[in-house]
Description:
Layout: H1 12-19, H2 27-34, E1 36-41, E2 46-48, E3 56-62, E4 65-70, E5 76-82, E6 87-88, E7 99-102, E8 106-112, H3 116-122, H4 124-150, H5 153-168, E9 174-176, H6 181-188, H7 192-204, E10 208-209, E11 215-218, H8 221-228
Antiparallel strand pairs: 1-8, 2-7, 3-6, 3-8, 4-5, 4-7, 9-11, 10-11
Amino acid sequence: MHTTVTINTPNPAAAIIARAPQPARSTADTSTQAISSIRSYTKDDEIFSEGDRAAYFYKVVSGVVRTSKLLSDGRRQIDAFHLAGDIFGIETGDEYRFSAEAVGDAVVMAYRRCSLETLAASDSQFAQQFVKGMMRSLERAQDHMLLLGRKTALEKIASFLLDMADRASDSEGAIDLPMSRADIADHLGLTIETVSRSLTQLEREAVIKLPATRRIVLNNKAALRRLNA
């Protein structure tokens, strides 16, 4: 067996660099990294399951995460789609009330739930982001409750498209939906067929354009807002 041993000759310049003072890292950055970790997932990977111990909460770094609950009759109700910057997995009890899965490739930051108070106290920027994120989640949950209980199929689709346009449209005003029509149906309380018919109707009326299955161009936002009123 051949073994190569490399002997390093001391380099005076390297020694000087090693002794030079290094930029100080803020206490907030150090604290955040100590109690958080980056996790990567692929399509349909489970992040946590309903009933698991709620030891962590999460922030989406990239990709999309769906949170859902399986009803007693076997139907799935998708509570929300969480995009980059959104926080999810916050619970008041000891267990998760919903399951969370990656819609496609996704990266999330996992924070230990027990360290939330410490993190918020040591990192004011994170505390502000956290509060804003929770307020946005509450607002979307209220809108979703109204949508499920009071709106027609076409109104539900209009609400969904406007929300996605606000959160994920490109410079041309188009949306590349990361989720399937089955996901959309389970989120809006509709069937896949109804979702498809509603999109086709909006395209026929020139309100939207469907250049691809998941790419939607909003031609007439005013008409969508009228449906969403």
